[in-house]
Amino acid sequence: MECNGLDVRLEVDPALIVEDPTRAVLDGALRWYGDLRKKMSFARGELESIAQHYQTSLELPWQELPERMFSACSMCFIGWLMRAIR
After folding, report:
1. SS3 labels along 5-53
2. N or C: which end of the chain has fewer CB within 10 A?
């Protein structure tokens, strides 16, 4: 995330959040979401909306998704964290 005048940047290190890039997002590729096939959640709905927007699928292995999916998923996660700590 760009600095907005507070001299702070929010960044997400892929190595810390991608559990297994050969797995699909729905199968637990992203550490903080876990196996999304086993649960329906607000986060799953957000990720499905992002995938639909970028015309891709959460069924694909993480490593096959477009780069912009990482940025969008990261922003989704940062927003989710910010709501949680308020």
Report:
1. CCCCCCCCCHHHHECCCCCEHHHCCECCCCCHHHCCCHHHHHHHHHHHH
2. C
- Which pLDDT score is estimated for 17? 80
12's tokens:
């997400």
**At 68, is the secondary structure helix, strand, or coil?**
helix
**Local structure of 4: helix, strand or coil:** coil
Give residue 61's pLDDT: 94
What is the C-alpha to C-alpha distance for residues 37 and 59, in angstroms, rounded to an integer? 10
- What pTM was computed for the model? 0.69
The answer to whether the Cα torsion of 51, 12, 81, 86 is positive or negative is negative
